[in-house]
Write a structure and sequence with these properties.
The protein is 29% helix and 28% strand. It is built from three helices and five strands. A hairpin with a 2-residue loop joins strand 3 and strand 4.
Length: 132
């Protein structure tokens, strides 16, 4: 393993697939997985880290409005740098989908030092409230 992997960490691949043995992730893949973990975790779920997680589920039944998208963006801008200190967050964009009024696309642009280029995660998130 490279020195970067040792610096960035090694962890179990999620979701766990034990049919082929334990899967491991390292280096920037471990960081990418950790970013997703912040998105999928509700505050209070992790023992010892009660504030960890973005808590996106609270937006599930909100309307797909400019206000809701702005709240999601603000939540992620606060949670990601707090909970995943290995990244340098560059931008969070939350946009609606013209074909599906319940879908918002969350685009997260970040850098993992010392990796030279930015990384991009696009996460589809479905709201139940419909479009505006």
């Amino acid at each position: 393993m490279s020195g970067t992997a040792n610096k960035l960490g090694i962890g179990l691949r999620f979701p766990l697939v034990t049919a082929q043995g334990w899967g491991w992730v390292s280096d920037v893949d471990a960081v990418d997985q950790a970013v997703r973990s912040v998105l999928l975790t509700e505050p209070g779920e992790r023992i010892g880290r009660p504030n960890f997680g973005a808590g996106l589920r609270r937006f599930l039944f909100q309307p797909n409005s400019l206000e809701t998208r702005a709240q999601i963006r603000k939540t992620l801008q606060e949670a990601l740098p707090r909970d995943e200190t290995r990244i340098a967050l560059q931008d969070v964009q939350v946009t609606s989908d013209s074909r599906d009024p319940t879908l918002v696309r969350i685009a997260i642009i970040y850098q993992v030092p010392p990796d030279p280029g930015p990384r991009n995660l696009v996460y589809p998130f479905y709201l139940d409230g419909g479009g505006a």
